[in-house]
Amino acid sequence: MKTKVGLWIDHRKATVVAITEKGEEIKEIISEVEKQPRRSGDSPLKGTYESRQIPADNTRQRTFTGELNIYYDRVIAYIRDAESILIFGPGEAKDELKERLERNNLSGRVVGIETVDKMTDSQIAAKIRQHFAE
Fold it and tell me: Over the Cα atoms of the chain, what is R_g?
C-alpha cells in the first residue's frame, strides 16, 4: 500500500494525516503567518470609503506572502511522497496549496478538494479514513 495523505489546511495550521502500511500518522504544521494584512482607514459602514485615500502597504503584503510561501513549502515537503492527496479546509489556503502543488508537478496526485469548517484532529482522521476506504 502506498502512502495516502489527507490534510485540513488554513493560513494558521495544517493537520496532515498520512495512511501507510504501518498505520496512521498525524502531524500538525503550524505557520508563522501573522494575520492577513488589513488596510487601515475609514470603515465603509461609517462613512465615505475611497480605496485611493489609503495607500497600499506593500511591505506588509510581501511579508505575508513570503511567510505563506515558507509555510506551503513545509507542507509540500511533508506530503511530497504521497500517492494520493485529499485537501480540505475552510478558506483560500486549500486552493493556494493546490496551485503550489501544480507548480511542483504534484497536482496529478490530488484526488479532491473540499470546503469544510473547523474540525478536530479525530474528525479529520475519520474523514480521511472514510475517503480512502471508498
Answer: 18
From edge to edge, which strands make up the β-sheet containing 84-89?
Answer: 23-30, 13-20, 4-9, 84-89, 110-115
Strand partners, 87: 7, 113
Using 70 as the pLDDT threshold, list the residues of the chain that sit under it: 1, 35-57
3-state secondary structure 55-117: CCCHHHHHHHHHHHHHHHHHHHHHHCCCCEEEEEECCCHHHHHHHHHHHCCCHHHEEEEEECC
Phi, psi (5° rounding) for residue 31? -90, 155
User: For the chain, first and last CA: distance in Å?
Assistant: 15
Cell digits of residue 93: 489556503
pLDDT given at position 67? 87
Q: Domains, the chain, ranges and CATH?
A: 4-34+55-133 (3.30.420.60)
- pLDDT value of residue 42: 52
Torsion region of 64: left, alpha or beta (phi above 0 gives left; psi -120 to 50 gives alpha): alpha
Q: How far apart are CA 8 and CA 74, in angstroms?
A: 14
